[in-house]
Structure formats: structure tokens, C-alpha cells
Amino acid sequence: MPALRIAVIGAGTAGLAAACGLADAGFEVEVIERFAEPRPLGAGLLLQPTGLAALEAIGAREEIEAAGCRVEHIAGQTLAGRTIFDVGYDAIGTGSYGLGIHRGALFAGLYGAVQRRGIPIRGGTRVVDIARELPRNAADDASRNHAPLRPVGAQGPLDGAPFDLVVDASGLRSQLRERFARIALLEPYPYGAVWGIVRDDGVWCERRTLAQRYVEAHTMIGVLPVGRQPDSEGSHIAFFWSLPRRDFAAFTSANFARWQDQVEQLWPEAGALVGRLSGPHTLTTASYDDVVLASPLGPPGVVFIGDAAHATSPQLGQGANLGLIDAVVLATSLASASRENRGAPTAGVVADGIARYARKRRNHVRFYQWASRLLTPFFQSDARALARVRDLTFAPMARVPFLRRQMAWTLAGMKTGLLTHGSASALGADGAHHRATSEGA
């Protein structure tokens, strides 16, 4: 059977990782990207042990980790000094840690991995539809459904040979999702954030901590060490400030110096960081949607990964990690289906492979969608009552060993259910997990 020909739509985190994994599995891959020159979007993010394991599976971990900053602890307090969240990866007991990384550095590492493999990238092409290359004798539904696929750009069908599989990794604003997915939920979160990158003075990266401060639930300030920017020496910090989406326009037109003073009053250490920003143009706004699909599988030969399949709030810091795992699991699932179905029709191999992918990812993705949706209002909302509940209960819960381990596994991206978890290496490599309580492995 000839190698499957696969189109990956989108050169973001999930798309580039998927291209690498699929190419390594022996498939013929082409990446189709809407920007003429692929580029990163956003400021900084936290890679969890599961995401790092996925990067290792495609041979990109070492380079990317060298550009980031190790994070071993997450600490959150109210302005009055009450500890709300104080959990380290050491609660897992396996030497786990996270990695603060600039999105540009993550993109550069993945883009370089794609280029080294010689995977073609078709830039400046916005895919808006998918057509089927119908055979001349396509008289029945089966032959029509299993016909090769041809992505359609804004200017018409793409030239070249058609594809056996289309992987939509085009992110939160996917147009193919609107046409081909069974959407169970698509709802914007009322709160977003502004992000900025400033140079570190060496203190924050040495602390190896993601630090946060909360004003009730309506304001969250965060400082994440992210290491190097692309083409830049020295360590950097990602600063974020949450605010309602409705206030984005007002924020960018408001008195910037007054806002800097406000940050200084709320949290002097963070105020020293934002004092290095020259104006609102140095900040990036970010908004988030809650996206749930009934299945990541579209019509025959179409599959969704990353934010196109399951966008969440950033409250648990899992978005990029889920996309990276999707990418690797899709590649391993298709490789297994290809090995075990030698001689079978191409469409059957594809259907088997993506069905395996959907089964392996179901529990892990569902847990983090649910957990993100549940926790977000405690940290980003107008609900004063929820803030009071958070302030009174979160820290005492973390002092209970059983619950502390549950929190640490949740943070590390290893949870597959309310009382189940898997190892980072197994989840990141092929989506496998064992059913275990917190008293298990």
C-alpha cells in the first residue's frame, strides 16, 4: 500500500508537531498555512510534563527545553497575603517539572524540526472548504465518501495530488470546524488577558515559579519565566493581566502610566516588570473560547486536533500540551492502523487510525475541558461569592495529601478522570494511560 498522503491545515503548535510525527511514521505530509510566512501568535506558555514527553517523542524536546525556563512550582496569593494555591510538581514524586517558554521559541523549535524533515509548507493559503475527488464510477455513497480529499482555498481548489486525510490544526478560529464538525459547545469566555514580555533580571527564572496574585476573581496578575526569545540572549518574563473582553478597547486607549501605577500598588515586584513596558503596543490581548466537539472526527478522512478540536480556558495551562499530545497520538494511531491493515483499502486504514486516535484522547481531553470550565470562574469572573469560596477552601484542600496529589497531577496534565491519571511519558507518547487512584502508581 502506498504511503498515506496527509494535509495538515495550520502551522501552529499542534500542526507542526503533527507534521513531524506523521512524517516520522512514513506518511507523505504537506502543511498548509494561511500566513505567507508561518509565525507564532501570543507571548508565553507553560509546557507540562505531558507536553514535554510529546516533544521528546518527535525529537524536539532538547532544543526547545534549552530555550525555556524550568518551572517547579505554582504559587498564588491574594493581595492580603492569603495563600490560595501552592503546589509543586514534587508532589507527584517523579522528578517532574514544567517549562516556561516563549511562544516564538516553541514555534522556532517545531518549525526547524519540520524543515529538517523536508516537509513542504504551502504558505499564504487559507483553507475554507474540502472537496472530494470523485471517481468516474462514484455511483454509491460508499465510493463517494471514501474518495480522496482536496482542500479548497479562498481562491479555489489547491493544485497537486489530492489527500487521503485532512488534519485540521488551524486553531481556535477554524473555518473547517464550522463546516464539518459536530459542535457540542462553542462559547466565549467573558474574561481574557493582556500579555507582555520583559527582560528578566535573573531573579524570576532562578525561582522556577509561576507566581500569581488575585483581586477577588476579577483581576489576576501572573508572572511566568519563559527563558530566551528567538534571536535574543538572556532570560525573559511573561507578564499577564486578566480583564473582561468587553474592556479590551478601553484598556488600550486608557492612560498606560496610570495602569502601571495600579500594578505597582497591587504587587510591587510585578510593578517593577511592567515599568519596563513602553506602552499598550507592547502588550498582546488574548481571548478564549470553550470549544467541545461531539467527536474529533469529521466526515470520512477529516480529523480535528488542538484548539480546533477542544479549546479551553488557559486556567490550567493545558492548551498547547493537549495539542502536542493530539499530534503524537494521531501519528502513532495511524502508524499502528497502517501496520495492522496491510493490503486493506486506504480509506479503511485512515478510518481505523483516526478512530483509534479519538478513543485514546477521549478521557484525557474531556477531563481538562471539564476542569477548566469548572475552575475558571473562581479566578476570572465577576463572582465575588466564588472568590470567597476559593479563598477559604483551596489552601486547606492542598494540605490534605490525597487532594494535593490530585492537584499536582492535574497541574502536570496527567489526569484522565476524576480519580484516574496516567504517566506523562505514556500520555505524551501514545495516549495510553492506566487506571489508577492517587494512591496508585
> Regarding quaternary structure, how should these chains be classified?
single chain
Tally the beta strands: 22
Helix content: 25-40%
Q: How far is the first residue's CA from the last residue's CA?
A: 41 Å
- Overall pLDDT level: 91
- The order of strands across the largest sheet is 6-5-15-16-17-14-18
SS field, number of helical segments: 16
Summed up:
The protein has 16 helices and 22 strands.
Structure, explained:
The protein is of the alpha+beta class and 441 residues long. 40% of the residues lie in helices and 25% in strands. It contains 16 helices and 22 strands. It has helices at residues 13-24, 49-57, 61-67, 103-116, 141-145, 175-180, 203-207, 248-253, 256-266, 268-274, 307-310, 319-340, 346-379, 384-398, 401-411, 424-430; strands at 5-9, 28-32, 44-47, 69-71, 73-78, 83-88, 98-102, 121-122, 127-132, 149-153, 156-157, 165-168, 183-188, 191-199, 209-215, 219-227, 236-244, 283-286, 289-293, 302-304, 415-417, 420-421. The strands form 6 sheets. Strands 6-5-15-16-17-14-18 form a 7-stranded mixed beta sheet. A 5-stranded parallel beta sheet has the order 8-2-1-12-20. β10 (149-153) and β11 (156-157) form a beta hairpin. α12 (319-340) runs antiparallel to α13 (346-379). The relative contact order is 0.17. The model is unreliable at 434-441 (pLDDT under 50).
